[in-house]
Write a structure and sequence with these properties.
This protein is largely without helices or strands. It is built from 7 helices and no strands. It folds into 3 domains: 79 residues, no CATH class; 70 residues, no CATH class; 113 residues, no CATH class. The longest helix is centred in the middle third of the chain and has 12 residues.
């Protein structure tokens, strides 16, 4: 009999589908809780027989355990980057670039668990499972319907999360005004345009309805663009075809044409609609200049969007 109280040390039945973090009941009557030596009960060549992480766990050993299962009451730091790094899992997440969500040059394990405390680590990202439950304005930890709902738990005026306050920003700054923009103003939020104006063209493989998630334009884990704008289509634009994945995105002096052209492709060519934005794609009416003069975070300031 193992510490889990059965003959199968790979049995994950005691962990819920939404949380792999072990708790004080770990082992028979909690006998394994607080122990740092996972190998005392779990054989490295047996665990995770049916999971995709089996090989990387076998290669790196028991040091990987805390990354998925927590500190087991030992007080030691979670080890996320032991697997999620540029060599072992270079694109889960894709971490290249100078800017990260914490505006550091390089992410650390403690940064990961700010957003991902209880991931089920099955390779299928689901916001209601893989993201930390932060309370809403009513103090309730409700499940998220999409990634943007998670982002807006911090980026709002009235419900700052403890430890992540942004009170130094002006009232209309996107960092704290985004919940209002997203729900009531921004055409990339819940409000959907009619699609009947001059600029009604979207790419033929465009799969969005009215909602564009924050992470379709903003790269949480690393980008070369300020404001965390994705620097390649593969870091966002999640509902577009894989054929667009390798197109680069460079934002210079407020010009976002290379970002917008990933989704937007005008049907009736006007102005600079036939000109290359610089990343190999065409279809937006201006390929130079400051887009934010007329387009404020997707808001329809002028007719034609």
């Amino acid at each position: 009999m193992g510490c889990n109280g059965d003959d199968n040390p790979d049995d994950n039945s005691r962990q819920t589908s939404t949380n792999l973090i072990v708790n004080s009941s770990h082992g028979i009557d909690g006998a394994a809780y607080g122990l740092a030596d996972c190998g005392a009960c779990h054989a490295i060549n047996i665990i995770h027989k049916t999971l995709n992480i089996r090989d990387i766990v076998a290669d790196k050993g028991f040091a990987t355990c805390m990354g998925c299962h927590g500190d087991n009451g030992t007080g030691e730091s979670r080890a996320c980057l032991i697997c999620h790094n540029a060599i072992d899992l270079p694109r889960t997440p894709w971490q290249s670039g100078h800017f990260t969500h914490n505006f550091n040059t390089e992410a650390s394990d403690k940064d990961c668990v700010s957003c991902h405390v209880s991931s089920d680590m099955n390779g299928n990202f689901m916001p209601e499972i893989d993201l930390t439950r932060y309370p809403n304005v009513s103090g309730q930890q409700q499940a998220y319907n999409n990634i943007s709902e998670f982002c807006l738990r911090c980026h709002n005026h009235d419900n700052p999360q403890v430890g992540f306050e942004m009170s130094h920003q002006t009232y209309n700054h996107p960092l704290i005004a985004m919940q209002d923009n997203y729900n009531f103003v921004d055409k990339h939020g819940w409000i959907d345009g009619t699609g009947t104006r001059t600029y009604s063209g979207l790419r033929s493989d465009y799969q969005y309805a009215s909602l564009v998630e924050c992470t379709d334009c903003h790269a949480m884990h690393g980008t070369h663009n300020k404001a965390l704008i994705i620097d390649s289509a593969g870091k966002g634009a999640s509902k577009l075809s894989a054929e667009l994945e390798n197109y680069p995105v460079t934002i210079t002096d407020g010009n976002s044409a290379q970002l917008c052209v990933l989704c937007h492709q005008m049907q009736d060519i006007i102005e600079q609609g036939a000109e290359n934005t610089g990343n190999g794609l065409t279809g937006v009416h201006a390929v130079s200049g400051d887009c934010s003069t007329c387009h404020s975070h997707g808001e329809t300031v002028q007719a034609g969007l």
